[in-house]
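Lab notebook, page 48
Experiment: co-folding of the full assembly
Goal: obtain a model of how the components sit together before planning crosslinking
Operator: M.T.
Materials (sequences as entered):
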Amino acid sequence: MNEKHIQHDTSANTRHVCVRNELGLHARPAARLAQEAQRFASDIQLIQGDLEVDAKSILDILSLAAGQGCALTLKAEGEDAGQALDHLSTFIENLLPEEN
Amino acid sequence: MAARILQGIAVSAGVSVGKAFFLNRRRFDLIPRQTVAQDLAPFEEERLRLAFELTQADMAAARDKVPAELKEHAAIINTHLAICKDPKLLNKALKTVREMGITAEWALEKAVDEIGEAFSAIEDPYIRERYQDVQVVADRIQSRLMGQGKIGDIKAIRNRAVLLAHDLTPADTIGIEVSKIMSLATEMGGKTSHTGILARSLQIPALVGVTDLEEHVMDGQLVIIDGLKGRLIVDPDEEELAYYSDLKYQFEDYQASIIRDCSLPGETLDGYRVEVLANIELFEEVTAALDSGAEGVGLYRTEYSFLNRRELPSEEELFEEYSEMASIMHPRTVVFRTLDVGGDKILKDWNLPGEPNPALGLRAIRFCLKHRDLFIRQLRAILRASEFGNIAVMFPMISGLKEVREAKALWQRARQELRAEGRRIAQDIPLGIMVELPSAVMIAESLAREVDFFSIGTNDLIQYSLGIDRTNKHVSYLYQPLHPSVVRSIKQVVDAAHQVGIEVAVCGEVASDPYCVPILMGMQVDALSIAPQAIPGIKRVIRQTTMDECKGLLKHVLESDTVGAINRHVKDAIFKRSPEELTFYSSILDMDEG
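Observation: model returned without errors.
Model output:
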């Protein structure tokens, strides 16, 4: 799992989100998040503290062990970066206990 | 070649003789750990991509076949699919092929190991364990790579076969065409594994935990599954084949006859009646319970709808489940046992890291009395279900009077709340407790005055009385269901209940053990509550004996002070009664020891 140290990031192509659901980004939400992210062409990163991982990788997302209340930053680069950020931030913020 | 006998754990009774078919293997005998010439690297990369693609297609197909009621299984497969689609896994393997110039198989193995290292550093134990899912996925890809594409494809079976596997996950079993499987055996797994549940529901013999299964059995080899004694015989000789064909015939005969008789009452030859009830864990088992001749549900374990979830079930959801159960079983009674787990099993946030010994920790009624909102929610759902059938409720792990009184007070509170809301509730709902702690045994008479019935949970009673964890292999030899202390404890509880005038049931494995049942009968317990599939056999045992005999046996047993002596008495008694059926009885007692 790629863990890079990042200097700073406050550019326009980032979005701050908060994990609200009770169990955090566990296996199933992580699987769904990766699936959602894979729909976009942009490179999308998920940042927590000084960890930066690939949002299209369930293994990477799991490695964050992001629990409830965790503040995350989404970063996207590419033609559909804006849409990706809109979609994924809404997705994370609205993670609900699995409906199915 | 001489026959080889492999030992395993029988989880579903029966005998079968047939050709082996491996659904999956864990041990890849020969992962080609080789370097490849540089110009062949692109070929290895392509093999990797293809194996990933094919595995994804397999998984998607398996998921789409999952019936709607098994959504948990579908969710597991979805997670596996996401791992398989993870660009990290594939890219790591591809990069390893390129940089090290090695085979696709070896590169995949290395990539997975690397991921394993990263996972082992994760603090959250739940997430750390997800590495197992990565391994499951990697195994599938690996078998695709190694040209074992047909492995896992049950359609490749022409004739019926003995299905063998390293392990059977819920995902594996979805696509199985039941009619083609004669029996099951896996190398992994224990008494409670998924394989056993599946096999029992299909009514085919099954073994789990078969030592060296994958090493000694090849596809297409003739094997015998002895689901009575827990053995797998590879390449049997003529004599063994003759013996087992005969045994299979006899067992099927016996099985057919007990099932034919299963709706008859549990009544001894001299007219003593004991109720035979079902223990139910999953809602679906209610069908099996009815089909096996259950006279009611003596233990409905209500944990399942609380487990493996991200959020607790609502009162409404519980009410729907409970009222459906009550109405399906109507007019038979359903005994709801309130939540019997610790918080860690329900929600991760309730995990108390400071609990070094969860069996002695904050669980069952203790947990419920601490989390009253949750407890009330469940009690309200049960109360509301009372309108739809005959129900009773019992509290687990009661250690003293105070707990019973507190639980009863909350029951009353829930009842009043519902009344105030104008809801309809049945008038008299029997309240009982599980007697499963030695402390409850000692004060059974006082407890009996507080409730309407007892249910003796022998599994826990044995563990707490003898101070052993039966899943700990170092002390499991001490798990003796007929230890004199256990027998006397059960007797004491039954007597106390009857003295006060309340009924007493026994749930736990002792009640479904053909060797132990006559002792319980001798004590005049009112009901036995057992796994649905054990009901026909136990009814047969009851219907073949007399109360006189049971009382005689009990007397001998109570006079004995060693487990060996007790086991001998029990064995003699059942041998006298039904020598020809003895082969078909499986027992939790260790009958080999003197």
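Interpretation: The first helix of chain B runs from residue 41 to 64.
Next step: discuss with group before ordering constructs.
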